[in-house]
Amino acid sequence: MEGSVRCSANYVPLSPLSFLERTAVVYGERTSLVYGSRTYTWRETRERCLRLASSLAHLGISKLDVVAVLAMNIPAMYELHFGVPMTGGVLCTLNTRHDSAMVSVLLKHSGAKIFVVDLQLLKIAQGALELMSQNNTKLPSLILISESGESLVPGYMEYEALLRNASPNFDIRWPADECDPISLNYTSGTTSRPKGVIYSHRGAYLNSIATILFADITSLPVFLWTVPMFHCNGWCLAWAMAAQGGISICLRNFMGKDIFNAIAHHKVTHMGGAPTVLSMIVNTPIKDRKPLPACVRVMTGAAPPPPQILFEMEQLGFQITHAYGLTETYGPATVCTWKPEWDELPTEDRVKLMARQGLQHIGMEEVDIKDPKTMKSVPADGRTMGEVMFRGNVVMNGYFKDRNATMESFAGGWFRSGDLGVRQIDGYIQLKDRSKDIIISGGENISTIEVESVLFSHPAVLDAAVVGRPDDHWGETPCAFVKLKDDAHVSAEDIIKFCRAKLPHYMAPRSIVFGDLPKTSTGKTQKFVLREKAKTMGSLFRKGGSKL
After folding, report:
1. Structure confidence at residue 439 (pLDDT)
2. How far apart are CA 238 and CA 244, in angstroms?
3. 231 part of a folded domain
4. Most buried of 165, 220, 246, 535, CB within 10 angstroms?
5. Sign of the CA dihedral 56, 58, 64, 67?
6. pLDDT range class, residue 431, cuts 50, 70, 90
7. Pick from 310, 534, 333, 543: which is nearest to 437 by CA?
8. Are residues 416 and 540 in the same domain?
């Protein structure tokens, strides 16, 4: 339109780095990070991030250079979320449960120039570097984060020493294009080798704002870090905390007792976690619990939460926000927005509604359930399954070094999640399964999520997962892998009978396997491992229990 211009006065590329700049002025003397007895203010955090950026730039990091990090939820991990992109570089946070072999693969694939390592994870890092050297791969420079701030390993640079010797007057290298990469996140690898997902400054900014709004993260929150910061950059909450001037309570490791202690001591207002974290909380022994000082808002995602777990969390005084997304959508992409009229419903009905994945948050343009072949939307009848698809500004730039996979996932102009779901009459979506996990038994589709939900309602069950087991007659039948609560005693036949009372006969598990379930560090069950176990079981028996 005539008279309309775009210039520096009315357009600045979006970047979550701006959150830190503002908060360091507005809340400069307020606490930003707490880690044990150590605390920092927002002014100090900004200065430390600038010193970090200065050190990295001095070591040669510039635009699009990758800095990898293998660290727990500690202050340095938080600072890297700002210090690396301040140089124009790209932050690559690695899963702390990967072994040396996987870390070496991801270091090579990412092309990381610098590798920042938590001292307690040094053996994994050294093993990865040794494997890379054996393959004549160029090694990244290693920076060690030690609790004491002193270099305890000769020959390695130490994180705190670098910061002490660096300038706090570094000129931030702001992105010229807001779609420039800010981070590289590898998928959890529950089904295959991890893919490198590219996040942009723009997407990180928008998803941080959206998360603040839908999770009701008001100014000056106290956030307990039970979400791994390496996973989708802490669901973008690493940046969101800076936007709101919040206090981050960092935990290296935790159990239920630690969560209750932290909430009581720091007056935590917000936290997040996969359903495994929620299960940890509700199964904390009564002697280890402490009364909540106030309502704690909990954002859950990463896997569909069992209604029984949601009910028990509510009974303890936690307020749940259920979000759903993938690494490719910067973490949370939809939210089960709660409606006031649902408050009057019976508890059982309320938690079933809460367990749904809802609709897109304000940062995502659209979510739909489509037939993956015709790309037509399925009817909102709560029965017809299709693939969950997204489009909007908080969908990844693409897969690093894998154009074919990128174009395949974007085919038809939508991001194809690989998740199967239905749309309910009120428009909310509900997951039914991953496309790889759906069980087809005698021509009937069985949602493993529905079967798992029933298993979780059994009073003796602590954790459960269901996969298809080969069957000579039915093709495959449901096989449940179950971990019982401490001191619980129940037979496989009892669990099967319990499920048959609540499910159609064909959906109930035909076989039960007792033991621990393999998990990723983001709380997802590695079903591909369980599928392989089920295959080795063959069709030798129709029902019964066995040990892992």
Report:
1. 84
2. 11
3. no
4. 246
5. negative
6. confident
7. 534
8. no
Question: Which range among 133-147, 301-315, 334-348 shows the weakest confidence by mean pLDDT?
Answer: 301-315
- Regarding whether 398 and 345 lie in a shared domain, the answer is yes
Please provide residue 469's backbone torsions phi and psi, each rounded to the nearest 5 degrees. Answer: -115, 130
143: amino acid identity, one letter: I
Kindly report the CATH number assigned to the domain that includes residue 452: 3.30.300.30
How confident is the model over 298-320, as pLDDT tens digits? 999 877 778 888 889 999 999 99
Measure the CA–CA gap between 272 and 350, rounded to whole angstroms: 20
Query: Within 13 Å of residue 192, how many CA atoms lie on the same side as its CB?
Result: 5
Beta bridge partners of 183: 91, 199
Given a contact cutoff of 8 angstroms between Cβ atoms, the answer to whether 102 and 121 are in contact is: no
Task: Let me know whether 261 and 407 are in one domain.
Answer: yes
Residue 245 is classified by DSSP as T
pLDDT over threshold 90, residue 12: yes
CA 329, 229, 519, 331: dihedral to nearest 10 degrees? Answer: -10
DSSP output for 482-501 = EEEPTT----HHHHHHHHHT
Distances (CA, A) of 367 to 381, 392, 427, 428, 430: 16, 9, 10, 10, 12
Q: What is the torsional sign of CA 502, 505, 508, 513?
A: positive
Are 164 and 151 a contacting pair, CB within 8 Å? Answer: no
Say if CB 309 and CB 282 are below 8 A apart: yes
pLDDT at 412 over 70: yes
Calpha distance 240→113 (Å, rounded) = 27
Query: Is 5 part of any domain?
Result: no
3-state secondary structure of 453: helix
| Burial of residue 346 (number of CB atoms within 10 Å: 0-12, 13-18, 19+) | exposed
Q: Give the pLDDT band of residue 544 (cuts 50, 70, 90).
A: very low
**Token pair in block for residue 130:** 């040794």
- The model's pLDDT over 56-85, given as tens digits with 9 standing for 90+, comes to 999 999 999 999 999 999 999 999 999 999
Range of the domain at 141: 17-30+38-203
Per the CB < 8 A criterion, the answer to whether 64 and 70 are in contact is no
What pTM was estimated for this model as a whole?
0.85
In one-letter notation, the amino acid at residue 488 is: A
pLDDT at 225: 98
pLDDT per position as a tens digit, 146-168: 977 666 677 789 999 999 999 99
Report the amino acid identity of residue 302.
A
